[in-house]
Give the backbone structure.
Amino acid sequence: MAEHETSGLQILLSTLQSSCDKDVILNILSVLTDLLSVGTDRRIHYMISKGGSEALLQALLNVAQTPTPDYDVLLSLLRLMAKVGQKDKKFGLKAQKLEAVDVMLSLAKKNLNHGQNLTRCLWVLRVYASSVTVGTTLGVNGAMELLFKVITPYTRAHTETARAAVEALAALLKSKSNSRRAVNRGYVCQLLRLYEDWHQRDTTNSYICIRRGFLLCLKHITNVRSGRECFLLANGMETLFKTAQDCLASKSLDPIVNTVTQILRKTYPKMPLPSSALSSPYSFPVPGSSRTEPSQPKPEDGCEEDGEEIEKDFSNEDVEVKEEDDDLERDAEKLMSRPQPDRPESELEQYRAMCLELCCNFRELKSDSEDEMSSEDAPGTLTRSCLRVIPKAAPANHQPKCGERDQTANRRKLPQRTSSVVLQNCVKTEEQEPGKLASDELGTVVDSFKAQDKANTAHPNPLAKDVSLDIQISHASCLNSCELGHQGTVRASEVVTKLLERHPGNIPFHNPCLYMGKAACTKSIPEFRVLAFPDFWGHQTLPYCQSVHQRRYGIQKAKIFEDVRRVIQPEDTIDQVVFSLDVPSCDAPGCLKFFSKFESGNLRKAIQMREFEYDLILNPDINTTQHQQWFYFEVSAMKSATPYRFNIINCEKSNSQFNYGMQPVMYSVKEALQGRPHWIRVGYDVCYYKNHYQRCTAGGTAAGTSGKSCYTLTFTVVFPHKDDVCYLAYHYPYTYSALMSHLDILEQTRNPKKIFFRRQTLCHTLGGNACPLVTITAMPTSESYANLEQFRGRPYVVLMARVHPGESNASWVMKGTLEFLVSSDPIADLLRHCFIFKVVPMLNPDGVINGNQRCSLSGDDLNRQWLKPSPTLHPTIYHTKGLLYYLRSLGRAPVVFCDYHGHSQKKNVFLYGCSIKETLWQAGCSIDTSVVTEDVGYRTLAKVLDKVAPAFLMSSCSFLVEKSRAATARVVAWREIGVLRSYTMESTFCGCSHGLYKGLQIGTGELEEMGAKFCLGLLVLQLKSLPCSKEVMAQAEVLLDLEEEIADHRSQRSSSSVETDDELPIGDEVNYNTDSCSDQEGDFLELDTIRERPSRGEGGKAEGEANKGQRVMLKYPCRCNGEAREPAKFPPSD
């Protein structure tokens, strides 16, 4: 049947080319028109594949070259050519090859006075001009002059012809040669006048297509520099800005507003950033480096268009897809091979100190003070360790000045405070730690202010009053900061003392005194002497979830037009620098006050543009000129009930979840003092877009050069109180000092008789800060040989986080993991009996401390250094990899390796893993299953987390190995260490698009819950896929109690698995066979009766059919900060 249809179409096309009979030609054209007028475009593409375009062009030549062309035939033929030509990307080139281009141009010239004939000719010319090569030829042969004879000022007559002419002209102007020709002949001013005339007189908006056609012509002309210059000289910006104001309120006029916006953004004069330098004001000498200044960013492929255009007759989308596929690793041997270690095996012996639980008598590992514990609930003490520390990698002038030294040092006294709140994590020892206040000293300071406190009781909130006064008097001693001395001493001001006395003490796992002590020993490049109040006081998880922000329609366009107004009306701006790290004393009266010189802070400069509008500039990462995204700063001296607009103008990423419902976070000091110490999502009219700034300085701009473009994050905030002190951040901050104090508290509050918790220093960073390594497992039930062997024989799980400093959400997930692992939850207890956890909770302490977004002090992205890390430049990566090598050398490679990250452009939480077959399949390579065998157990954990973790989404997971990720932790642990289940776990900065938290922004509670649910996933993984004793299986069955505890959350998930429009595209469904699989569907069948929607990019049909049922939820839900939290779409009204 198909052969008859094919031969029939070919006969029609052949007859059309050869016949001279009018009736035959008309009948064939009628049949073809009917065939192509129904169905999908597949019919047109099929006709093109059979030579349909060539047949139509040849028929045109036959008819047009007769002495008296028959226009009945020509009109039908031209109509069909226009339809087919739109779908044939090479139609113009085919016409040029058959010499049909000049024929059509000649026909158009002959029919200038015949509207219908001319219109058909112009539509075909538009199709021809879709090829830049043909468009250039038409321009040389006078096509533009012809079209300007047809295009007239506003008229209601012959509007179809006018539309065809304008769109044909726009197609011609895609050729840069034609654009330059149009500039030289003065067509820019003519087009502006025509557009303005049609805009003003088309009061009913009946001819939007014609008006937009004029704008498309201007858009293409401004692709060349001469066109932009001519456009500006003709006051084009003012003209388009003025006319677009009438269109902003109407959604039907979006095509016009969008095109105007594109033109204005393109022609907006490119300006260097208003910053004295591209590099950070903070500097650090990199050991062994001869580099004197950070490398400059490479110029971006922008709109420098003076060179000859490159002909491309394929779509950009096809190119992007091809580039993505090209990044996939296609070499099966490389995927299957295991590289040799990057260091001699003799060097691995030093990591024995990190794993003494494997080789020492258990008595040697017991704490010296453990026998003195009076009960299981008594607070623990710091564990004395006999472990030696791996040599520090910091240069001599950057060695630690005060603790965190190796734990072989004598224990020092932690600061205590005299208040009604019991400080559970402080212990008494004989020696006071340098840089900290002893409890009796702090108590004396507190006592000295009791009389003054009584005098303030008449004020309803005397502390807030004192704080307000202090803020106005001096920044260094105000309540929002605790000054750190040059030698690391903590100077407790009067306000700080009263704060410590009045702190409610109800923030779990946080103590201000302990935090101050840890911060005093934290080494920063700027030598920070001030603590940010939120870090000192603490954050309490909100009791509700905040909804994804819904911004007003058209607000982003309005923001762009406001930026254009600055150029057109510069006299309306103040343009006053009110804060700068480069010029310390630039405070101006009557405006907001900014500050960022504290741990993890990032704000370089603040410029007041209008009374309540500020442009902000962020610091790049130290020793780089890029990676500006993370911000964290203090703002004060605000008015109440006043909208303040903030524009962060040097962001780097091309898109952000700020465009899809994400909001920045804010912490109010006054709110905290009133009992609400929360980081909350704030801001409205939140937008993220490309601006007119380039990453270069005014002094460094050279003629003919251009830097990378910058992006603006803009949002408006109404502060809750007058003269408050507030902090704004990209995401919930989590500092290095917070981690170190948190580890201390975990160590003190654990049950030492049940929990083996050992904290060691893996190494020191370039900046001299300790990189902690934590080991967690269950204590042996006895010291018998059998129990000790079981203790040492547990499989390892290695977890890491915060290799990228700006991904603070990873630390909150890690916080949830650590707190769950040391909790008294029965599932946590069972998990500790199943695994030994090795945790590096912060791989890049220096970057976190100094407010970097992505790099360490060496200026390197540490997650691209795992192939050959330097022990000097990348010590945390080098020694973490060495620890993995050591475990592998003992035959104890981790069963699970996971690196916690944050993702700035996707929602939900998901895993990246590694698969040979999925990578080769996606890359289009043939797979020989007799050679390429693979255990698909790498997918089990993701499937389990999709069932037990509300924020997790299986369909966002990917198991592809890309060439550009070859040096990441995930890929190196998989290839070199041989970890089958090697993952990167990505957590959203924004919120969730599916499940229980759909439509909600993610908070610290949800992130901590994800960390706990990851632990549950490991337990289920143990039961499903790993060797498991009968005793563990029996305990798990009791704890999970499937018949009672399976909760059906299917109804809470979206009925459709289609991602929202802002999400990155997900690959097609993967379906392949495998000969090796340890993750059999028959194992632990209760968990696989779970009903699961089909996932894109995962599994085959058989697996989708097998997973039917319900979602598993724990009998013991994760309790964040001691309380179970329920999602709520709207915060309670106050």
